[in-house]
Amino acid sequence: MELKLYLEEKKRIVEDFLAEYFKKGIRPDVLGDAMKYSVFAGGKRLRPVLCIAAYEACGGNGQDILPQAGALELIHTYSLIHDDLPAMDDDDLRRGKPTNHKVYGEAVAILAGDGLLTEAFRMFSSSSRISATALLAGIRELSAAAGLYGMVAGQAMDIISEGKVPQIDTLEFIHRNKTAALIRASLMIGGILTETDERTLQALKHYGEGIGLAFQVVDDILDVTGTTEELGKTKGADDSRGKMTYPALYGIERSRVIAADLITTALDAIQPMGEEKAFRLKEIANYLTRRTN
């Protein structure tokens, strides 16, 4: 199956799972509406797809881990709702639609994000197909990547660094934690849930770090070179807020070279897995550098 069809198929099964999961009512209605508004606003479903791809590369059937893959999307969505708030990045547009707080107000948007973050762990732990030991290890990996040792730390540094002179160590801290940590965890969780060997887990870890950073470098470039329509969010928002980005520090062309080097490093990391296992992961890595949104 070609990569485009593979990505579409995995995205579809994740979305079908989430649609079924959220059929049950949430009270008050406005809270449920706000949560579903952002969950079903679109997006590539990259993190759950990467989790499934890693799980399948380690010999599993992707259908078996839909609760865990879906939980990754809930956490990603919560982070977008909170990032867009006036106290954070103050964005009006996300995935081509008004941001959550623009539709439901700041208070409900905050609570919708809180609800998604908390529900993610209930969703993740709801499985009869994965051993309790593997689920616990997966939850530990996920909570570290989403919290103080990952996404939350990256967002905090991003906020306090606005308007300051870009520095390499600060820039890398922001991107390694705010973006790459959850992408890395998505891949590692795929391996953890199959209870694969440590060598494979380390390969997935380094691959995830490489493509996670490359994804953010490309995102930074697209914020400069893309259009609002292509991006689904306001073009040039990073520059207008004085964000630390790769183009701000290195320029566009050097940033493109950095992204390509990161992908090469990621591909090297999964070489020990063998061509058959790593085939799909290699395709996804190369796709990430060619994306336009």
Features:
71% helix; mainly alpha; Farnesyl Diphosphate Synthase; 293 residues
Number of helices: 15
Q: Please report the first level of CATH classification, the CATH class.
A: Mainly Alpha
Name the CATH superfamily assignment: Farnesyl Diphosphate Synthase
Order of helices and strands: HHHHEEHHHHHHHHHHH
Measured between the Cα atoms of the first and last residue, the distance is: 23 Å
Strand order of the largest sheet: 1-2
Helix content: over 70%
- Principal-axes geometry comes out as globular
For the sheet with most strands, the description reads: 2 strands, antiparallel
Number of beta-strand segments: 2
Q: Tell me the CATH topology.
A: Farnesyl Diphosphate Synthase
- Please identify, by name, the CATH architecture: Orthogonal Bundle
* Strand-pairing-aware structural class: mainly alpha
* Unreliable stretches covering 5 or more consecutive residues: none
Radius of gyration: 18 Å
Kindly report the average pLDDT value: 93
Structurally, the number of domains stands at 1
Bin the strand percentage: under 5%
Account of the protein in words:
- The chain has helices spanning 3-21, 29-39, 46-57, 66-83, 100-104, 106-124, 132-146, 151-160, 168-192, 198-225, 228-231, 237-240, 246-250, 252-269, 275-290, and strands spanning 93-94, 97-98.
- It has 293 residues and is mostly helical.
- The chain has a single domain (3-290), classed as Farnesyl Diphosphate Synthase (Orthogonal Bundle).
- It has a two-stranded antiparallel ribbon.
- The chain is globular.
- The two termini are 23 Å apart.
